[in-house]
Amino acid sequence: MGFYSPSWSMDFDLIFKYLVFVDGYNYFTNPVDFLLLAILRLALIVTAVALITFHYDAVACAMFMPMLGVATFCYSYTLVKFLAFSEDVRMMYYPGVWFSVVWSILAAILFALVWYFVLTAHHFDYQRLVSERFNTTSSTQTATDVETAVERTSSSDDVSEPLIVQPPAKRISTFQHICALLKYCKHQWIWFTSGFIFLVIYAVARVFIPKYTGDVISNIVKKAGVASLVHSVLIMGALTMASTFFGGLRGGCFDYATALVSRQVRLDLFRSLVQQEIGFFDVTKSGEMVSRLTSDCQTMSTTVSTNLNVFLRNGVMLLGALVFMFVMSWRLSLVTFIAIPLVGFITKWYGAYYDKLSEKTQTTIADANQIAEEVLSTMRTVRSFACERRESDRFEGKLNETLKMNRKKAIAYMGYTWNNEFCDNAILVAVLFYGGHLVMSDMMTTDQLITFLLYQMQLGENLYNIGYVMTGLMECVGASRKVFEYMFRDPAIPNDGEREPVLGGRIEFKNVHFTYPSRPNNPVLEGLNLVIEAGRTTALVGPSGGGKSSIVSLIQHFYEPTRGTITIDGVNVKDISHVYYHQKIALVAQEPVLYNGSVRYNILYGCDWATEADMLRAAHTANVHNFVMELEKGYDTNCGEKGVQMSGGQKQRIAIARALVRNPVVLILDEATSALDAESEALVQEALNRCARERTVLIVAHRLSTIEKADRIAVIHKGSLVQSGNHAELMEATDGLYYSLVSKQILASKIKGSTE
């Protein structure tokens, strides 16, 4: 306040004069307002320090939006005060005026940054609660679930857990999300750069249109003559044609770039998903993953590319409009800047709220997609239990939840529109009022005011579109949270082994303990020591839920043991190359999955290197060739989705051929014949006996006919090996578990035979 004079020396008398209002308070000359704003900011900073000191961090964080409002008020009030000072031209030569204005604006910005970076820059962990039941007896499993989750075939191993709490995940900021989204645009820089060049030409042409429109209006009002009018109209027409042509080129470039971004986002997400460990799929619904791959990825790519286009276009036009406006009247331009922070504050508040609503909306959409995927993939079961109405009502319930979220978004958007419209009209009224004052004060001409108003309207449209961009980005961020959570998730079991040893097929479990990641308090295997000899057939038997299928899952490296090691020929399975290992080990599950493709495609699945001769050899061995050749299209016959066009026995034999075509060292048969009729079982059993020669075979079965010919039988009970030997040796131990199981099975067969 001591510099509010033409002199650059401090005048303490002036300070006293302004503080005690010697000449009274004059809004157009007294700078005491800036002192009051400084005291307000200082008091709030002290309050923030006190909150942090006494560990009220959450309260400080919750106050960020109100404090941003305070900073916005300080900024806008400073510009209003500066315009008041400018009414007296002499005050423009006082250094104190410029010191006060510049410092007040900088202090408002610093005030907001202090709250954001120092007080509220905390990341809060959040937990995602997933209600998921693991019950493979339900027919709602997808093809991938059945094929990859063989560990869930035993009832006790699959005890349902009603609530699973996943480990806390870091919730990254909105800005980090936007940066991650923009990185995808960087990869398509050629198309975006081309679009940007066309955009700049388009925007420059559009920027000059209001100027020549104003000239046309001025020529008409002043009756300047036909020549001047035609000249202005021709220039305006040329600019319009140029903007139209280059606007079309811009749109085409950005549209194709959007398609490229969408492709890359979906590809990256799919690659990340297929690299996850099997435990991830135990707790993540397939419908949710499909929803992220479809609607969420589409929302992300379309929104970010479209909004980048809109933002750049309106940004260039906004800068051009501002240049023209400041050239015509810097005072009138400041009136516009007074309200811009208010619009930005409203957009920030609304954007944060809209982000949350968008994330919840995408979650409800994923839930609805999950139900639709489950029902449509299991229509036979739904129809057989007459549950069409029940499933429709369940789907409608999820759609109603989505509608509820969309209703909240609509209400929020309505309020946002009200505020924007009010601000636009308030700015227009203020510009007209103050502009009229400037015209009457001979600080501006009428022509300049008309042109300024045209640029003002263009500026308002640009600001509205940029605000719409922010809204779109918030929706995009809401959709991208789960996508990025999946995309950037590191698998708990990385398939990063590199060794490719020559394998003979000897598998050894050394003091293996195992619990499923989703049920860490329920041990499945406890100190298991088991050797599966190379070149021999070993059968695993025991009561349901004893851990047999878990052993198969561990051999397949679907999971890793909690403690202990699993080796094949002395090499830890996790150190072996993932692709190489699964070329040497093949699985035939109880419910094999066939994909929607030809018989040839299903047999050669995962074996791109296999020849037609390899396929035919495997088909003959698995008793597939004869029935396939009876089909009209032979090996080109489509199996249908999940093999629906094939019988149970045919699917099982095709699955055996798929396992044999890779000539595995170890063949795992997990209840491969338990669901077949007698004739189909005989054909499958014949194929199994033929393919068991000269390789290690591991059989998981309950039927005596399947296991009694095994070289060695391992009895598994409650996660431990309780008996071991061949059939004859184990039957001699009449007090053993194996004898008990066989006796019960024989008794059950006799009872069944007598009733028939």
Automatic annotation (TrEMBL):
<feature type="domain" description="ABC transporter">
    <location>
        <begin position="507"/>
        <end position="743"/>
    </location>
</feature>
<dbReference type="GO" id="GO:0015421">
    <property type="term" value="F:ABC-type oligopeptide transporter activity"/>
</dbReference>
<protein>
    <recommendedName>
        <fullName>ABC-type antigen peptide transporter</fullName>
        <ecNumber>7.4.2.14</ecNumber>
    </recommendedName>
</protein>
<feature type="transmembrane region" description="Helical">
    <location>
        <begin position="189"/>
        <end position="209"/>
    </location>
</feature>
<keyword id="KW-0067">ATP-binding</keyword>
<dbReference type="InterPro" id="IPR013305">
    <property type="entry name" value="ABC_Tap-like"/>
</dbReference>
<keyword id="KW-0547">Nucleotide-binding</keyword>
<dbReference type="InterPro" id="IPR027417">
    <property type="entry name" value="P-loop_NTPase"/>
</dbReference>
<feature type="domain" description="ABC transmembrane type-1">
    <location>
        <begin position="195"/>
        <end position="475"/>
    </location>
</feature>
<dbReference type="GO" id="GO:0016020">
    <property type="term" value="C:membrane"/>
</dbReference>
<dbReference type="GO" id="GO:0015433">
    <property type="term" value="F:ABC-type peptide antigen transporter activity"/>
</dbReference>
<keyword id="KW-0812">Transmembrane</keyword>
<dbReference type="InterPro" id="IPR003439">
    <property type="entry name" value="ABC_transporter-like_ATP-bd"/>
</dbReference>
<dbReference type="GO" id="GO:0005524">
    <property type="term" value="F:ATP binding"/>
</dbReference>
<dbReference type="GO" id="GO:0016887">
    <property type="term" value="F:ATP hydrolysis activity"/>
</dbReference>
<feature type="transmembrane region" description="Helical">
    <location>
        <begin position="61"/>
        <end position="85"/>
    </location>
</feature>
<feature type="transmembrane region" description="Helical">
    <location>
        <begin position="97"/>
        <end position="119"/>
    </location>
</feature>
<dbReference type="Pfam" id="PF00005">
    <property type="entry name" value="ABC_tran"/>
</dbReference>
<feature type="transmembrane region" description="Helical">
    <location>
        <begin position="310"/>
        <end position="328"/>
    </location>
</feature>
<dbReference type="InterPro" id="IPR017871">
    <property type="entry name" value="ABC_transporter-like_CS"/>
</dbReference>
<dbReference type="Pfam" id="PF00664">
    <property type="entry name" value="ABC_membrane"/>
</dbReference>
<keyword id="KW-1133">Transmembrane helix</keyword>
<feature type="transmembrane region" description="Helical">
    <location>
        <begin position="34"/>
        <end position="54"/>
    </location>
</feature>
<feature type="transmembrane region" description="Helical">
    <location>
        <begin position="334"/>
        <end position="351"/>
    </location>
</feature>
<keyword id="KW-0472">Membrane</keyword>
<keyword id="KW-0813">Transport</keyword>
<feature type="transmembrane region" description="Helical">
    <location>
        <begin position="229"/>
        <end position="249"/>
    </location>
</feature>
<dbReference type="InterPro" id="IPR003593">
    <property type="entry name" value="AAA+_ATPase"/>
</dbReference>
<comment type="similarity">
    <text>Belongs to the ABC transporter superfamily. ABCB family. MHC peptide exporter (TC 3.A.1.209) subfamily.</text>
</comment>
<dbReference type="InterPro" id="IPR011527">
    <property type="entry name" value="ABC1_TM_dom"/>
</dbReference>
<dbReference type="InterPro" id="IPR039421">
    <property type="entry name" value="Type_1_exporter"/>
</dbReference>
<dbReference type="InterPro" id="IPR036640">
    <property type="entry name" value="ABC1_TM_sf"/>
</dbReference>
